[in-house]
Amino acid sequence: MKAIGIWKALPADDPEALVEREIPVPVPGPDDLLVRVAAISVNPADIRTRLRKTDDGHFTVLGWDVAGEVVATGAAVRDFAPGDPVLYAGDLSRPGANSEYHLVERAIVGHRPAALAPAAAAALPLTALTAWEALFDRLGLTPGAAPEPRSLLIVGGAGGVGSMAIQLARLVPGLTVIATASRPQSRAWCLSLGADAVIDHFADLEAQITDLGLAPPALVLLANDPDRHFPALARLIAPGGRICCIVPFASPPDIGALMHKSAGLVWEFMFTRPMFATPDRARQGETLTRVAQMAAEGRLRPTGTETLSPISADTLREAHRRIESGRAIGKIVLSGF
Fold first, then answer.
1. Among 224, 273, 218, which Cα is nearest to 246's?
2. Tell me: the pLDDT tens digits for 282-293?
3. Where are the coiled-coil regions (predicted)?
4. What is d(CA 102, CA 3) in angstroms, rounded to the nearest whole number?
5. pLDDT at 150
6. CB-side neighbour CA atoms (13 Å) of 147
7. Nearest to 161 by CA among 185, 135, 142
8. What does each C-alpha distance from 214 to 177, 238, 333 come to in angstroms?
9. CB–CB of 32/88 below 8 Å?
């Protein structure tokens, strides 16, 4: 089968940064699904993994957002069958899905309604799971339940996770959702997804919140450039508040800045459950099934803003270049081998 991967870290515009290779079709283990890949999308996780690849002589396949169809199942699988349409984000500790066929553990796979096209579905898994876990597992919000406190700041609202988080936060009645965006296009995007207000993350956050007549937020989802934004957020956060960060710091933050406010910093890493085989990892499959149904019914907008075709080394390098520019809105999807 055709697979697209990397041998070593190279700039995205280097023709050897991502290359095509023929590799064997994998064989499912007892709890695995073998999926024919129909569409994928690209995330910052792909970029970070590519740029950290050592020149160790091993060919590594990236890709952790998939929509496709089950073609074979492991002996212990009972809830999926060949022909089932699926979507999933996969497991960072296993080979990625930038290939014609891919193996994935059934527990972390969602059922995809036939009404949800592969290209739309491929934009959902990683960002929807990250946003869902950040809001509802880490920050303590509950779908359908009025929160206390009642405001959430999403730093990086126009990115893939921010775009999903704005929409999922709308499941919480009475929650004021403030997003950050720095350009007219990204500001308009955030408002179209349901943000109550949008502020510029390159300007004074505290002054902008004050100008809006809002109290300091007690909940913050930090989805972009934490080294730049954390000091300002530590000053802005309400006493007893909580910041959830989803991207790594380049250097250790001064978490002591949160002490006087009794505020906290928590992490959300979507791959924790599959990587550590946590007993509750099947919640990811359940969440994806729920999210996919919401998207099929029009209650959630898939955040793919552009689809490139076919899935090839050339189109993947182009997607990587656009993500690395820092100016992408929503998700970039690739469809069809």
1. 224
2. 999 999 999 999
3. none
4. 10
5. 86
6. 23
7. 135
8. 11, 11, 37
9. no
